[in-house]
Design brief:
2 helices, 19-stranded antiparallel β-sheet, 38% strand, 3-stranded antiparallel β-sheet, 4% helix, globular, mainly beta
């Protein structure tokens, strides 16, 4: 592979890192986004201008009354979906604290077999244990009091069981201690200088590791990877090819869109909102990979099915499906005595939509008729990426209980093939099943 320094967007990059606490110490981004098309940011210094002062005939505002009240930023990131670099964005879009769990063939699955759930992202701010959350995967970690605990039971009986010092549901983890030897695979909570407590896993044994978890050659952080938000750095080149850093703290995703098109790669769009922006944090040195593989619907293992819940069938004639997660968040929570805004709060229902562009095949008729009868539909869409080694990568969504909101007609509109765009909205069914599920199988072992 050949890379050169260029004075255009081709020389730029976006990198992200998990942030477990909104407003926490900026985490140096270490995961570049492959397939990046654009990342357009808007900075808002929230200026107020004192005006209409009655002063001796002045008819222009004075500069002294041009005051910045606080600073934040927002933007839109557009990329193709690759088997690497997507897990953190997907987890944040779902508002989930899902972690990456090892699979059976060396691959990793976001959220394990349960997958990420649609949740209020602020509920995972700091990864503090909450009675309102469910903990269904063994190996999940939560923070209670001043102690980290590991989930020991992966079943529904673990719901709302508060961590204790030791017990059948949770295992108390002992903080890293100087002078103690550790071997590869051992876990130890640790608070880095100027940072927040997280769990670190020893990744290198050398007659017992005595190095602090701040030494990345011996330890890797495994918690805080997908909390409520992420930190992000844009490397933006000047016309002379000099890369300049723009750093966005505590980014939350307000809208996510995933497009599955038969004739193209799976693409993603993420609208993000940052607590604030600065350009003083040092630029990272990104390392492009040659092992990327995109997701597409051209793979014969890819799937699109729709029908009555539990009885979905392959539907011919679908050309494109778009999954949208639209959040309602109070993102401008700035208060007296504070420099930066507080963690956004969910202030409305989450809209979960799937739009299907389809020709009017004979099989499509039964789907469109559910618009007239108000009958629930379920659908599954799954894209498969090219395998890297023995790893089979997948990206997919399942709507468990959706209703057609529009596009349930078969319009005669000229000589072309009859077609329409069917829009379905996800709802919660009578068994309280997650309305939208995601599945990501990836080669990434960390965020």
């Amino acid at each position: 592979m050949s890379t050169i320094t260029v004075g255009s967007g081709l020389g730029g990059f976006t990198a992200i890192a998990p942030q477990s606490e909104y407003g926490g110490t900026f985490t140096t981004p270490n995961r570049t986004i492959p397939g990046l098309k654009s990342n357009k940011a808007t900075h808002d210094p929230h200026i107020v201008q004192g005006t209409d002062y009655l002063e001796y005939g002045r008819i222009v505002d004075i500069g002294a009354a041009h005051v910045q009240t606080y600073l934040d930023a927002k933007g839109t990131l557009v990329c193709d979906a690759f088997q690497s670099g997507l897990a953190l964005l997907l987890a944040t879009a779902f508002g989930s604290a899902a972690q990456l769990y090892p699979g059976v063939q060396g691959q990793y699955e976001l959220g394990g077999t349960v997958g990420p759930q649609i949740e209020a992202p602020e509920s995972h701010n700091g990864q503090v244990w909450s009675a309102a959350n469910t903990y269904l995967n063994t190996g999940e970690f939560v923070f209670e009091g001043s102690t980290w605990y590991e989930n020991l039971k992966g079943d529904t009986t673990n719901i709302n069981q508060k961590p204790s010092a030791e017990g059948s549901y949770w295992k108390k983890l002992t903080n890293w201690a100087s002078g103690t030897s550790y071997t590869a695979g051992q876990l130890a909570p640790f608070t880095p200088t100027g940072g927040k407590s997280a769990i670190y896993k020893c990744i290198l044994s050398a007659k017992g590791v005595l190095q602090s978890p701040e030494n990345g050659n011996y330890w890797t952080a495994i918690t805080g990877q997908s909390g409520c938000c992420f930190d992000m750095q844009l490397g933006v080149p000047t016309t002379t090819g000099e890369l300049t850093p723009w750093n966005y703290h505590s980014c939350m995703i307000t809208k996510a869109e995933f497009v599955f098109e038969r004739t193209g790669l799976v693409s993603c769009t993420f609208d993000w909102d940052a607590q604030y922006v600065e350009s003083t944090t040092a630029l990272i040195v990104p390392t492009p990979s040659t092992a990327y593989a995109p997701f597409s619907m051209s793979n014969t293992a890819s799937v699109f099915k729709i029908g009555a819940p539990g009885a979905q069938q392959t539907l011919p004639g679908v050309k494109k499906a778009t999954v949208t997660i639209q959040r309602k968040l109070a993102v401008n929570r700035i208060y007296l005595g504070e420099t930066h805004k507080q963690v956004p709060s969910t202030n409305g229902m989450v809209d979960l939509m799937v739009a299907c562009e389809m020709d009017y095949t004979s099989q499509a008729k039964s789907v469109l008729e559910t618009f007239l009868t108000n009958t629930a539909q379920a659908l599954t869409i799954q894209a498969v990426g090219a395998a890297i080694g023995t790893v089979q990568n997948e990206l997919g969504f399942t709507m468990t209980n959706g209703f057609i909101e529009s596009g349930g007609e078969a319009p005669l509109d000229g000589a072309d093939v009859v077609k329409n765009t069917v829009n379905l909205k996800a709802t919660i069914n009578t068994t309280n099943e997650p309305p939208l599920k995601a599945k990501l199988v990836t080669a990434d072992s960390t965020f």
